[in-house]
Amino acid sequence: MQRKYTYTVRYLDDFLLVLPPRFPIEEHSARFQSICEKLGFSEAQDKREDGTCVYYLGLILDTEKMEARVPEEKINQAIADINKILKYTFVPMKKLQELLGLLEFCVAVFPIGHPFLRHIWNMFCGPERRAKKLSKAARHNLAWWKKFLPIWSGTSVIQSKREKVYIATDASGKKGIGGVEFQTGEIFSTRVPRRHRKKHINWKEMYAILYVFTSWSDQWENKKVIIFCDNTGVVRGINKRMIRGRAIEPLQTIFLLAARRNIQVAAVWVPTKSNALADALSRFDLKKIANIIHGWTTASRFPPPPTNFKDNVKDLPTIAQFYVYHGLAKSTRKKLDSSINTYKEFCSLHSYAPAFPIKQRTLAHFIALEAPKRTTQWINATIGNLKSHQKDMGLDNSIL
């Protein structure tokens, strides 16, 4: 749509109206056209489409099949362009930019393909040139797309609700990796291959998640997998589809497996002490593993998690709620409660209400008063405990 007046600097384009089933399209379409006329916009009739299957922003949206599709000609064009660019040593930046435009269409339907564009985008960093040498990392990204696009249908199922699968994983230094799936109770514990033992802990944590997907993802088709992990960098990397360093390699493979089976992936940070079983599995701590699993099978002997805790994790299976809460030893939870009570007393004394969610100014004042009489270890542990408690309450932890 283009504004009729000559002084227009910007114009609006491509509107999509989504209506409930059996709503009169003609009535709403006429109302939309009337609004446009009042605003001084003219509608391009050749672009107008009504119905349950429309072409919008270069994609095909089908509400009968509940699918979003990339047109086949765009996929074929992307494959052809990738093959041409891989033959270059010095690639023309204009051609690479055009290819990125096509791949962005694919990512719109296939969002977990975003990590595979990172090194291609990096080619545009630095001084502008007509041509640049194709980096090894960008070549690997293009090779992945070359392998994936021919076997991809170009279709993504639009699902309003997916069945959820909950897993927890962990990696421990040079020892090993471990994980558990709560629905089935399946667990794994294995050593990190010798050639990988000196790699960064982020890589090992990501490798543990990759191991889970390699082992069990064939059971998770069209589901949403939620990963409990105690590494903030890995949690952020999974949720943002991007991570710095070599951990990007297992991350890309995770999303390749997820894409093949239409799996949504999300990660949730949990404190190390709450990730008790995965931690024990990664350290081959057989006594601790036995105690935790015995606790599962005799859950009735343990007090249930408090109501305020269960309310904030009600989407988790009962066994997962039990695991996350009782993963902390009684002595540890007592220390956690002690530091939380200290913070609450401070808030009450200085009229900071409510105590949660924690505000930056309140936390700074609390630390300033406690620091002279406490150790650095106590301060760090208390911030961790507050973060864990706030997470249990279902509150935002961005300032902690």
Structure report:
This protein has 400 residues and is of the alpha+beta class. It has four domains: 2-51, no CATH class; 72-157, no CATH class; 164-326, Ribonuclease H-like superfamily/Ribonuclease H (Nucleotidyltransferase, domain 5, 2-Layer Sandwich); 330-392. It contains 15 helices and 13 strands. It has helices at residues 25-39, 72-85, 93-109, 118-122, 136-148, 201-216, 232-240, 248-260, 276-283, 286-297, 307-312, 318-326, 330-349, 360-370, 376-392; strands at 2-3, 41-42, 53-56, 59-62, 67-69, 90-92, 131-133, 155-157, 164-172, 176-181, 187-191, 224-229, 264-269. It has a five-stranded mixed beta sheet with strand order 11-10-9-12-13, sandwiched between helices. It has a four-stranded antiparallel beta sheet with strand order 3-4-5-8. A two-stranded antiparallel ribbon has the order 1-2. A hairpin with a 2-residue loop joins strand 3 and strand 4. The chain starts with a strand and ends in an 8-residue tail after the last helix. Residues 1-5 have low confidence and may be disordered.
User: Could you tell me how far the N terminus lies from the C terminus, measured between alpha carbons in angstroms?
Assistant: 46 Å
Radius of gyration, CA atoms, in whole angstroms: 26 Å
Give the biggest sheet.
5 strands, mixed
Number of strands: 13
Assembly state: single chain
Helix-strand makeup class: alpha+beta
Based on Cα principal axes, name the global outline. globular
Helix content: 40-55%
The residue ranges in which pLDDT falls below 50 over 5 or more consecutive positions are: 1-5
Q: What portion of residues belong to β-strands?
A: 5-15%
Q: At the fourth CATH level, what is the homologous superfamily of the largest domain?
A: Ribonuclease H-like superfamily/Ribonuclease H
CATH class of the largest domain: Alpha Beta
The count of domains is 4
